Each structure stands twice: as C-alpha cells, then as structure tokens.
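Pasting as-is:
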Amino acid sequence: MFKKIGVIALILLLSASFAAAAVSVDKTNTAKPGGYTVTTAQSTGNTGGDIGILWIYDTITQGETNLHSKIVNSDITVLNVDLNWGDQTDSLRLTIHTADGYVLGPYFDNADGATDGRINLDITNPNGIAKGTWNYEVYGYSVDGTEDYYI
C-alpha cells in the first residue's frame, strides 16, 4: 500500500516539475529559463530587432514537422517570431529552440491572445538574445490537407 502511494507521489511530483519547466507566453513579464520572457508581439511583423529577415514560406500536413533556423549574430534584446498561416480551421504548433540550449513553448494559435491562424511573439532578454542558430519547429497539429505558412 505504501509502495503504491510512494509511486503515485513520485509521478505527481515529476509531472509538476515538468509542468513548471514548460515555458509559455507570460503576460506578467516574469523571466523564464535563460532570462527569456515571451510575450504577445508588440510589432506587427517579423522584425527581429536590427536583423535582416528573410521570410521562409513552406507547407505542412497533418502530423508533419518542419524545422527552420535563424541566425542571430548581432546584439539585440528582443527577437520577434511570427508564424502565420491565416487559416483558423487548421492548427499549427510552434516550439522555439534558443541558440543557448533552451526550449520555449510549445505555442498554439491563441498563444498571442488571438485565435487567428497566427502565432506572433516577442522573445525578450535584458541580457541579450543568444547569438547563434535559433531553431523553429513547426508541427501540423490539426491540418486538413496541406497548409501554407510563413515564418
């Protein structure tokens, strides 16, 4: 009996730990792992600070995962990530892997406060956004046919 209770308590403790480690959009501006704060974007597009942006256009189907990368090589404190597919009937999931090894997300359509076929987030770090390769993982969570998107 005590063995079962101990196992259940351990499972609950581990579940709580994993839930606490998950990074979500923070409306209170509390710093997350690595000093990152993720909030609804203040900009209307993918500006990425002073980094020149090349939009990536792609398509995705149900259950497919596409990986995209962005190189940050300048000193910035805000990085905008804007995944836009525009179709509210399909659902995409975005997970962001920082250049310094942190995982932000996963994020779904309403992560930026609106259900509009878009996830538009600002990642802020007062100590600076990590330089190097940032990876964006786009997953076709619920897609009917093929969905076009840009990031």
